[in-house]
Amino acid sequence: MDNATIWEWVGYLASVVVAISLMMSNIKKLRWWNLIGAALFVAYGVAIGAYPVALVNFFIVLIDTYYLVKLYREADSPAS
């Protein structure tokens, strides 16, 4: 299997993971799955030289990370 084929499969995997994330009803699970899919797309985009793909998915990774931190902090804080 050549290098191009491996990265093509990473792109397919990223697509499947993002699609799975969109089927989640639990927001934490959605964010985690989406974060993984976006991170795979960052790797894929960089590997094939598709920097706009890598850039937008890096931004999505940051967004998912922000909201996950926020969700976990809210869960840990005592109720007012």
UniProtKB/TrEMBL annotation:
<feature type="transmembrane region" description="Helical">
    <location>
        <begin position="6"/>
        <end position="23"/>
    </location>
</feature>
<dbReference type="InterPro" id="IPR019629">
    <property type="entry name" value="Uncharacterised_HI1736/YgjV"/>
</dbReference>
<feature type="transmembrane region" description="Helical">
    <location>
        <begin position="35"/>
        <end position="63"/>
    </location>
</feature>
<keyword id="KW-0472">Membrane</keyword>
<protein>
    <recommendedName>
        <fullName>Bacterial inner membrane protein</fullName>
    </recommendedName>
</protein>
<keyword id="KW-1133">Transmembrane helix</keyword>
<dbReference type="Pfam" id="PF10688">
    <property type="entry name" value="Imp-YgjV"/>
</dbReference>
<keyword id="KW-0812">Transmembrane</keyword>
